[in-house]
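User: Hi! I'm a student and our assignment asks us to look at how structure tokens line up with a sequence. Could you show me two examples?

Assistant: Happy to help. In each example below, the sequence comes first and the structure tokens follow. Example one:
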Amino acid sequence: MGEQHHVKFPQEVIDEYASLGIDLVAMFSAGHLGTRMGVQIVEASADRVVGTMPVEGNTQPYGLLHGGASAVLAETLGSVGSMLHAGSSKIAVGVDLNCTHHRGARSGLVTGVATPLHQGRSTATYEIAISDEAGRRVCTARLTCLLRDAPAAPDARARNAE
């Protein structure tokens, strides 16, 4: 889980965030929770976000993938898509997540694919399909994010106070 990982971003997104001095891989991750769970973002754009997560270490007492783990993967992928849709001047905050669990997974990796259902100015909604290594649907989720103005950078706040 600690190995270096390269996410595939569209070039215009890389350029936009690089001009702001922002590390995209760190910005578009699941943070400490995602690291503990082994979430890896593989591909990221406003129109499609793909990520994986191991089943091992993310199971409930019966040895099946925990539904909460599927929810973490789904919210991570939908949030990344929402942030990319909103652009660098906004932040995405999840306001509604629902998950339907179709089957259990006992081993291997699950892969989530988030695609937009709605991309507006103030909200974005993504459907996230999570499948096992055999391509069987494990979970279908839907995430809606509120898109809010990003807070001013600390150095910008200091300049405005002068």
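Example two works the same way, sequence first and then tokens:
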Amino acid sequence: MTTTLKSKLQEDLTAAIKERDELRSSTLRMTLAAITKEEVAGKEKRELSDDEVLKVITKEAKKRREAADAFAEGGRAESAEREKAEGEVLATYLPKQLSDEELTDLVAQAVEEAKAAGAEGPRAMGAVMKIVNPKVAGLAEGGRVAATVKKLLAG
């Protein structure tokens, strides 16, 4: 039987607790709590698929990045470091992010497809995003994708 992403998180949590790794265990606990919350949201309790669990982990990692930035701006370096460290723990469960060059190549292809379909200029953003989003799902953050699309449509 293949192990699901959720069960891998639970196994890693158990290992982290045994190793007395406070950062790792608290991060995994928060993530598992977010997964459970997602499972019981709605009318019926359900088991999340690996893709859905990955989305929850991605959302949690994004929260950590944003919190780290907010703490850094507020002059709370210690809290910012903690959030960054938690984000790094979560990053080990996420697929490798696309490099800037790979992302630019994918977006350039999508821009060509959109132009072939008749969409041009800054108004083509929606059409390009529709083409590129399924290709980069989970591999690049939406903000990065949108910025790259804007840059290529403008220039």
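Here is something you could point out in your write-up. The helical segments are 5-18, 22-40, 50-73, 77-91, 100-116, 125-136, 142-154.
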